[in-house]
Amino acid sequence: MPLSYKKAPQTTSVKWSASHLSSNLTINRASETRRATMYGVAHKSGFTMVTVSEDGTKQIQGQVICRPVGHNSALASESDARFIPYIVQAVFVNLPIRNILVLACTKSIQIYELDGTTNLHTHVLDKNHPNRTESSIYARGIAGVGQNLLCVGNHLGEVLVFNIPQKGPTITLKETITGHQFGITSLVSNANLLISSDTSGFILIWNVRTMSQINVIQPVDESGVTALSIWNNCIAASYANGMIRFFDPENAQICGSIAAHARCINAIDCNERGLLASVGDDCYVRVWKLTGDGENLQITHECNQHIENQQLVGVKFLNLSRSDIAISSYDSSEVILLRAM
Amino acid sequence: MSLKSFPIIFINMGGEMVYILEQRLSAQEIVDQKATKVINDIVSAMFNGKFIEELFRPQELYPKKAVKHIFEKVAHSSIMRLNEASMDKLYDLMTMSVKFQIMLCPCASDIMKVTYNHVNSMRKLVRSSAVLDQLDKAFIAFNKQYERLNDVEWLLIRDTILFFFQDIHIRVSIFLRENLQTQHGQFIMNTDGIVPTGFQPPGEIRTYKRGRLNHTQTFDAGERHEPPDETRTFRLGLNIYSKSKNADANLLSDTVVRHPPVQVSASSDIEMINPDPKMIAQLNLLSDLIGSSSSGDSSRSGIVKLSLFDDDEDDEEDIRRSHTTHVQTSSRDHRPKNEDITIDVSNRNRNARLTNVLHDLDFDNPPARHGRKNYDDDDDLCSMMDRLPNSGNKRR
Prior knowledge:
Strand order of the largest sheet of chain B: 1-8
CATH topology of chain A: Methylamine Dehydrogenase, Chain H
Largest interface: A-B, 77 and 66 residues
Radius of gyration of chain B: 23 Å
Oligomer: heterodimer
Shape of chain A: globular
Order of helices and strands of chain B: HHHHEHHHHEHEEEEEHEHHHH
CATH superfamily of chain A: YVTN repeat-like/Quinoprotein amine dehydrogenase
Strand content of chain A: over 45%
Number of helices of chain A: 0
Low-confidence stretches of chain A: 76-81
């Protein structure tokens, strides 16, 4: 039986509307210890989130305003707008030792406690570096790796690796890994691999233990990668031209492709059961089922859900073993919850 | 984000401004010669060499208020004067039109085509070879900056432009009438039919074994799609006011503009934070550059007063307003008297009290004063604004 979805009766809203950015929805899934789900989206220079109790009856709002960053790596005073950062991507990162909120911004990377209350660390991006393609300085692509590492990409194509302590604000830059020629667009990881993509369509595969590059996936066409996801040792990549492609990290070969959307795909997400959800500017959420593995992949289409007049910018599975999904859209402060029927 | 978004915002909003003004000038039967001068002067102010040079410098997004200020200057660079309400309405229309065009661009790089459409349509309205020359030079500068950008840079530009238009949900009657906008101010998005350049029509799944195609299947994408078609005319950014110029001269006069009941004012919005001194300096420079082009002539020729509003009568207010503005005009700079009256946006502060009074008067009892048109929009904020004193009264 193919999947079908119904919109949850209760509306879940954050305080501000979501900006038009790729992967502009992050969730902190409910767990044994924390029986509430947190949803967050980026709004210009702010991050807006809501914590929703399991039964959906209780909602607590929270907001984080990015800190302006001045010259000489010093924090600028709050009132000096010369260095107003915009958030390019915001992610709740769950590391075995700690949960944090990471804001990849223009000019800086800002790391907070999960609830956004305390700024733990602000890393100022190097502005003197020559820039090949884009004229702006920004961070994009956020992934937790291993026990205690945080990886964040930047406009130069570098991936910065930070050490996250179990407690306290002593966050240090461990190393900077290079390999991309263009700005990073997305990062994902599993137990063994870190995958990074850039604006030209290159995808690099790294060993998380040595942080060395083990494979390169060449661009298939001129379109850049907008988002990445990983399932069962199979890399899923969405493109600005509506394609989703799958690659085998072992040999960097393509193992599947879908002409999926009629407009730019803004976000994709996989759960543990092999479901893949994709959203784009065409107002469609599409869900796919993956079986097999990188060597022998099968793809079936599960369902389409049309969200009228909404350019969809974020999608996340609510639970890694279930099919329910959350969606965000540009200019809207509602987080749309779709429950599988 | 991208540092190349402001020129796109400026040229496209400027294009919309020229379309709207041209339509209003001809609808209000402003003498041809004057109307031509207004359009020539405004396009010339927008595209003068020094200004364009500054415009194309990589720069951060300006706050909305600052952008509006630039357009106020542009609008008043000629012999035309707009009152505050007209300027607001003009700006709202420009904003929503460009937001619509950017959001509905099939792919981000199509923003280039929207801009081409604006530049080409403006060309058709300009009647001065010197101004056309300026426009062409600006167009070359634009091409130089933008033609080599790749897909993803365009995505970044679009995302940045969409920051600028985020949370603005003004309803526009033309859009509502043409079924392009919902009652809530959302744009209606149809994404079926032809897919953008570089896309495949959704509906095909392929799997590969050892890098070689193994299996192809189809799926139902939920709507019908066709392959890209480069020969199709790209319509976003064309002059939508020109086609109905003769048929419906008052196309704009009943334009509905409404603000949502709850205005989002997030403190994460750039406007909420104090403006950057450097940005201000740059803005002042831009502003000055606009002012420089044609300030000299305005005292010599008759001032054209233009209203975007419906020609509703309200004599009492009108007299009061004319009186005030007369006094202002004469005491200010001894301009030669002419049959028209100046209502100058730049005098906002001096007019503030009066404007408030008028607002109070008008907003409190809308339906009684309503003119012949637009009965279904009685409760609408801007159709009420339509009844602020305006120029049409005199001529009828």
